[in-house]
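Example complex used in Figure S2.
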Amino acid sequence: MESKVSILSSMGLKPESSPREWPVFASTISAGFPSPADDYIENSIDLNEYLVQHKEATFFLRVQGDSMTGLGILNNDLLVVDRSLPVEDGKIVIAAVDGEFTVKQLVHSKKGCILKAANPAYRDIIVDPENDLEVWGVVRWAIHKL
Amino acid sequence: MTAVNRSIALIDCNNFYVSCERVFNPALKRKPIIVLSNNDGCVIARSQEVKDLGIKMGVPWFKVQNLAMHHKIIVFSSNYTLYADMSNRVMKIISKFAPNQEVYSIDECFLDLTGFKHLGLTDYGQRIRSTINRLVGLPVCIGVGASKTLAKLANHIAKKCSVF
Ligand SMILES: [Mg+2]
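Predicted assembly (310 residues):
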């Protein structure tokens, strides 16, 4: 299925939600050795702060489809999209093409703008001047459950 | 004592509820759209295409239902959670351009730009406008005047002429 995105109904971070800080442990996870019992708390993490740089310009979208799996974006992922980020070559973007949202990698080429899929089963979208293309925002995070 | 010649801006989102719906649905671009009040009683927002058809603000829905059907107008029930979220974003963005902001309604606010004249108010206004458009996708109009009333008037003129 072509990767489309739908905007979540609750788009903003809840203004009333107090920052939730979780401890971050300093030791890295090593496979094989048990980590020392006296792990100390290096810092704390607030996931809102970690995931959202520009609150006013950040929106959450849900992915439907598997055309971007090669770049780590899976069906049903939650995307964190930041409209304040510059739209640059190679970025993964939310684009509106002829009135429909899609998530793709933006690549500039001699032929013009290409919205590249990251799954060999899908064709890239070569944007010609007749298409109505708007880059809606740049994807910063894709969140999925392991 | 001479009064300081003040520059007050009124920043107002164009067709606010309609524009909010459009941000999240690109298929709605250039389509005629209306938003209805709670329990779908009255028309409370119209896209330019609908205004051009002569459908007035506040008119009961049943009075224009046939006309709307005839012109394939897309109709939304109001989604205040969405509009409030977008309003908060817009107001926060604007607040970063000058310290003295007065939020006047869900989609408009006054901003005292008196101290920013040296930057050129037309340029500064354009910057505010393009920043809002880039960050949240909403179109706004800005009117500047020596008082709130004059700012409001200037905004009204800006809307009609669609230049600034
Ligand atoms: Mg307005």
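Chain B touches chain A at residues 24, 26-29, 81-82, 85, 88-89, 92-93, 134-137 (CB under 8 Å). The radius of gyration of chain B is 17 Å.
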